[in-house]
Write a structure and sequence with these properties.
The structure is a single chain. By secondary structure, this protein is of the alpha/beta class. Helices cover 32% and strands 23% of the residues. It has six helices and nine strands. The strands form two sheets. The protein has a seven-stranded mixed beta sheet, with helices on both faces. The radius of gyration is 17 Å and the shape is globular. The two termini are 21 Å apart. The structure holds glycinamide ribonucleotide.
């Protein structure tokens, strides 16, 4: 039987290394999501050029050329609909979305954030984690809700913060973990492995692989 894959669009604003991790994972024949579009609000995003080189459909929408957020999102929605998008993954997409857009994609849009949410929401995450002196930071994949960096948590990875860390060294260590948990999280939510109870995600066959790195096993 051929697997009916979930048509997934990835939204980026820059480098796109998480997008790349998702695209590469989705090449596996048994992966439940298929990447049908890479869209960016910044036409110069390096991730767009990479996606084009892979032969994936891309969409560049310069948000600065739209008078309102609604107008930008209307174009984005049109682009998503044009390829029959069923699911959206935000991967370094650095633009807040209106509640209307977020509600339209309720439980069908996920995001990755480089901290252990609900700690360190927003920008300059790593600098704030270092300044706070935390020993453990990490990353989180969650369903998107209208409030910034909020929503039911699907996957997290814990990453140690070293005394010698700079913002850049911590970001790089956490980014590696992001590349592991994001493909796992997308796999879980686009197959029948998760359900929501209130604003909590329940994972079937949940396993804790180690005391310091929590990321649900596939
Ligand atoms: C990633 O670290 C991602 O978690 C973060 O931006 C980076 C994008 O890198 N996202 C956020 O801060 C969202 N609030 P990438 O373009 O190489 O995936």
């Amino acid at each position: 039987m051929t697997l009916k894959k979930v048509r997934t669009a990835i939204l980026i604003s820059g480098r796109g290394s998480n997008m790349q991790a998702l695209v590469e994972a989705a090449r596996a024949p048994d992966y439940p999501a298929e990447i049908v579009l890479i869209a960016s609000n910044r036409p110069e995003a390096p991730g767009l050029a990479w996606a084009e080189a892979q032969g994936i459909k891309t969409l560049a929408l310069d948000h600065t050329s739209y008078a309102t957020r609604d107008a930008f999102e209307a174009s984005l929605q049109e682009g998503l609909d044009a390829v029959g998008t069923e699911f959206v993954a935000l991967a370094g997409f650095m633009r807040l979305m209106t509640p209307t857009f977020v509600k339209r994609w309720h439980d069908r849009m996920i995001n990755i954030h480089p901290s252990l949410l609900p700690s360190f929401k927003g920008l300059h995450t790593h600098a704030r984690a270092i300044a706070a002196g935390v020993r453990i930071s990490g990353c989180t994949v969650h369903f998107v809700r209208p409030e910034m960096d909020e929503g039911p948590i699907i996957a997290q990875a814990a990453v140690p913060v070293l005394s010698s860390d700079t913002e850049a060294s911590l970001a790089a260590r956490i980014l590696e973990a992001e590349h592991t948990i994001y493909p796992t999280a997308l796999r879980l939510v686009t197959s029948d492995r998760t359900r929501r109870e209130g604003e909590k995600v329940i994972i079937s066959q949940d396993v804790n692989p180690s005391p310091t790195l929590y990321s649900p096993r596939e």
